[in-house]
């Protein structure tokens, strides 16, 4: 990262993290030695806040407790939509049912989902992600959620706008074949898959997503980008 | 019901109830004055038990506590499938995640769902049904559940076999346009929709299910059937 920053290239961190505010997320990465600040992060919750404000929507929130501060400036009285994030232990039957009742009570239910991930890995094993609960509510109400966060096109476009660059000028580096690589490419960007984290060998035979390049780690990705300047 | 029984016609109760054993279900109906016994009831849990035994499957159960006794004779050690019912408050994040982990750990995940209902009504309001959680697990594991219970063809075929009649000789009476009427018709039976319970006026414009007749209540359905004998 320091080499990228030293080269004068613009940099933006695009995360689907919805279990914590950007502040917490950044502190964690700083603790791991990364040079990163909150205003360099594009994340689903602030993207959702922009959508809510633009459309005059007041959300019923089904999110992780630690994410709630991101919605501090949003009016949540008398809700006319539901925002769902990776609520983890907050996905009790009572809470999911409450979100369902808010939706089914609307003439035209609006469900905004902070990502569509199936599951993720934690130290104690795999955990169901927001996408599974999004699907449950979609089916129960016979609706389609609007996804903010990767791989939504709008999410990548926000990140590009924040940097002031065109898709053709940008490269996405990520470990997730669909959410990172596929999403960025659909937006007109090039995308490099890193063979770490979520990467699995079978990704290289993915039926419809083909990265522009593979690298074994982040340092290799930086080499590749700096070489091609 | 007494008029049907007096006429010599065979009768079978087909329920998607998965929050209680047939014993409890029957006691409730007996309490309401119905002449009904356990061996007249076709329900998803015993149908699932037959499937489990036939295929040597040992289920991880994600069901309502009150339904567990229906699986008393089933081996649940070292599970090689998941059975999901309307678990209601048992649909905690931890429990749904545990079912997910069992499935994702299998080479070819087998998910058996005791119905595919979206929601139902209780005195305190609408409640999410098993179908929503089935969809969550289907999405997370990228699989298709096998549904036992209405509207599955196999379920109606079991009921017919238990009575020893052909589909052409049978009439389904129900309030649910898709699960009762649609399911029975797909099996070759005729079906009458009762304008009570789950019935909604918009059912009469359903895009693909058209009952053979409508009646305003159960007594009218009995009139209709006895008239046409």
TrEMBL record, chains A, B:
Enzyme nomenclature, EC number: 3.6.1.1
UniProt catalytic activity: diphosphate + H2O = 2 phosphate + H(+)
GO CC annotation terms, alphabetical: cytosol; nucleus
Listed CDD domains: HAD_PPase
An example Gene Ontology molecular-function term: metal ion binding
Cellular compartments annotated: Cytoplasm; Nucleus
Major localisation: cytoplasm
Keywords on record: Cytoplasm, Hydrolase, Magnesium, Metal-binding, Nucleus
Cofactor requirements of the protein: Mg(2+)
Primary enzyme class: hydrolase
Keyword presence, Endoplasmic reticulum: no
InterPro entries found in the cross-reference section: HAD-like_sf, HAD-SF_hydro_IIA, HAD_sf, LHPP/HDHD2
Superkingdom of this protein's organism: Eukaryota
Similarity remark: Belongs to the HAD-like hydrolase superfamily.
Protein function: Phosphatase that hydrolyzes imidodiphosphate, 3-phosphohistidine and 6-phospholysine. Has broad substrate specificity and can also hydrolyze inorganic diphosphate, but with lower efficiency.
Protein name: Phospholysine phosphohistidine inorganic pyrophosphate phosphatase
Upper taxonomic lineage: Eukaryota, Metazoa, Chordata, Craniata, Vertebrata
